[in-house]
Amino acid sequence: MRFLKNIINLIYSGYCIVAFFIVLFLLMLAYGAVYFMNDRTRTLAAYRANRILSWAWLKICGYKLEVEGWEKIDPSRAYMFVANHSNMLDLPITGFFLQHYYKSLVKNELKNVPIFGFLIKVSSVRVDRSNAESRKRSTQIIVDKLKKGISFLIFPEGTRNKTDKPLKSFYSGAFKTAVMARVPVVPMVYLDHRGLQPVRGYRFYPGSIRVKILDPVETTGMEYEESDALQEKIYSQIESTILKEDKDWMKNRS
Asked: Secondary structure of the chain: what % helix, strand, coil (to 5)?
């Protein structure tokens, strides 16, 4: 029986991976159609394509998504969205539920990944965290776009969490840029999906995923030096929510 279940899951996982690359290809076509348009138009088009195709992928792969707290978001404002980063599911989850057009910050290394590299060139800001000049340049770009009303999504852990802790330590960029641009930080917690795509492999398992949007934290009136305290506050909020509410985490700790 275990052997049969393993074979079935291998087929299902292969199906999800093939569907994922089909979605990437369709996104590339959509992004290519608006490549030479102005940045705001490209961002809006990318957002709409992401929503439609992320929804399609989640649907055909058997994932159900429940979002709590979206009513806290004012569609007329720009935000710095930050979330925990557990596995590959985070991308289609965010692409579908985040009903607020945005850009994202990604690692510079991803520009060399076929198809994906083109997609992030259109929709994201890249940063080489090992290069001070790159960090400075990306910071200024993000601040400028936030002030122009374009929201940003950043996973402050920097990469998927492969540790045995609920969260990796945070990089400071998201919080410093939010304070500089005077925009609220929105903590988002992705729950119950660690076991649906184990981070150290390429297996997928169907199931239900929850996203909990916590109260936006205003930065108006904050000084740049207060960004570290802001970072610690957001980290604590996301960590405590995972510890109290994430079914996978609680099951592994029991």
From this structure: 55, 15, 30
Query: How far from 192 is each of 87, 161, 222, CA to CA, in Å?
Result: 12, 14, 34
165: nearest Cα among 102, 253, 81: 253
Q: At what angle do helices 2-33 and 39-60 cross, to 10 degrees?
A: 160
Does residue 113 surpass a pLDDT of 80? no
For 95, half-sphere exposure in the C-beta direction (CA atoms, 13 angstrom radius) is: 24
- pLDDT of 210: 96
Which residue is it, tokens 């290394």?
109
C-alpha dist (Å) from residue 236 to 84, 94, 187, 239, 242: 12, 21, 10, 5, 10
SS3 state at 65: strand
Is the separation of the CB atoms in 153 and 102 below 8 Å?
Answer: yes
CATH number of 2-253: 3.40.1130
pLDDT of residue 254: 58
Q: Helix (H, G, I), strand (E, B), or coil: what is residue 241?
A: helix
pLDDT band at 60, cuts 50/70/90? very high
For the question of whether the overall pTM of this predicted structure is more than 0.85, the answer is yes
Compute the distance between CA of residue 17 and CA of residue 11 in angstroms, rounded to an integer: 10
